[in-house]
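Try it yourself: sequence plus coenzyme A, in.
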Amino acid sequence: MITLRPITDANRAAVVALDVTPAQQAYVAGVAESLDEAEQCPEAMPWYRAIYDDDTPVGFVMISDNIPPGDPTLLGPYYLWRLLIDAAHQGRGHGRAALDLVIDHLRTRPAAEVLLTSVVPGEESSPLGFYLRLGFQDTGTFHDGERVLRLPLTPNPR
Ligand SMILES: CC(C)(COP(=O)(O)OP(=O)(O)OC[C@H]1O[C@@H](n2cnc3c(N)ncnc32)[C@H](O)[C@@H]1OP(=O)(O)O)[C@@H](O)C(=O)NCCC(=O)NCCS
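Structure, out:
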């Protein structure tokens, strides 16, 4: 079963060791870099978890969790900032299951009507097809050179 767990001193090394394929590295930063970004950008309201398959860490997810209005440089209030499934564990539904758990979390949050994300444009290894498959819509707009996607959260995202 897929669960989201906090990152602690006990599991940090195992989670930081997770990695995507070399081709995918062009599209997503790793866990260590994500944790650094979270520390450097408290204004982006980082909320992150390790993705577990039973007791095995298989991925990492980070969102912006209700960014206060007023900073146009940040996408929000709810933004899927990072999602990665380790190369050895991809293609088994874990990415979809993790996103479902993030959506469960968002349903507890105030005025969470849309989850935004963005993808680096590219042909191969891009996660664009994954997001479209999961119900994200292409907004046709760009932010910092990345294509912005949106997932309506109410009444039923998929
Ligand atoms: C994108 C990623 C999170 C998908 O995780 P995953 O566990 O392999 O995906 P799932 O097995 O849950 O796939 C869910 C569905 O999306 C489809 N899918 C997965 N990757 C896809 C892709 N690149 N293009 C098109 N469809 C894709 C699957 O076929 C599956 O479809 P189905 O449910 O109808 O059978 C994973 O490949 C990854 O970590 N990639 C590198 C990091 C990255 O790019 N992250 C996103 C940017 S932050």
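One thing you can check immediately is this: Strands lie at 2-5, 46-53, 56-65, 78-85, 114-119, 137-143, 146-152.
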